[in-house]
Amino acid sequence: MEKVKERICIGGTFWPLHRGHRTLLEEAFRIASTVYVGLTNDRMAGEMREREVAEYGVRYEMLGDYLDELSGRYGVTYEIQPLSDPYGPTLTGDYDGIVVSEETEKTAIKINEERLRGGLKPLRVHKVKMVLGAKGSPISSTRIMKGEMNEEGETPEGGK
Predict the structure, then answer these.
(1) Residue 139 clears pLDDT 50, i.e. is over it
(2) Contacts (Cβ under 8 Å, ≥6 apart) of 16
(3) Within a domain: residue 106?
(4) pLDDT computed for residue 46 by the predictor
(5) Where do runs of H (alpha helix) occur along the chain?
(6) Domain that holds residue 79
(7) Is residue 156 part of a domain?
(8) How confident is the model over 115-131, as pLDDT tens digits?
(9) pLDDT higher than 80, residue 48
(10) What is the CATH number of the domain that holds 82?
(11) pTM above threshold 0.85
């Protein structure tokens, strides 16, 4: 019997969109009937970090292009929703699961605590291992913006 597909949520800033993000998003599409992607709004994206982040419209378009590709490959629909806080609609929405990285698993645990307090079923947490770059450290947007690696995790000649 085929496993029932889930309504999956995932969230982030996705800037720049790197191999780690693509791995998370692909996992969401692999297991989902519908993927709900929370994309941090400009205020939240700016408050959460010191590095430069492209404005929401630019990130929305770039992310949408990649999600279109995944949607075609997996036959799964998606919806991008603006996020103005770390939890977004996950506290009240009708979702089955959430895809997170090892780094963001703590947020999923908090979401489930709040869902239970609110009388909702907890989300099934699908944790994806951090994607490592060429030198064995996790691929991260901050490292990319510092020039320590590119979106694929490759380091420049003489890089750190």
Answers:
(1) yes
(2) 141, 144, 145, 151
(3) yes
(4) 86
(5) 19-31, 42-47, 56-74, 105-117, 141-145
(6) 6-131
(7) no
(8) 999 999 999 999 999 99
(9) no
(10) 3.40.50.620
(11) yes
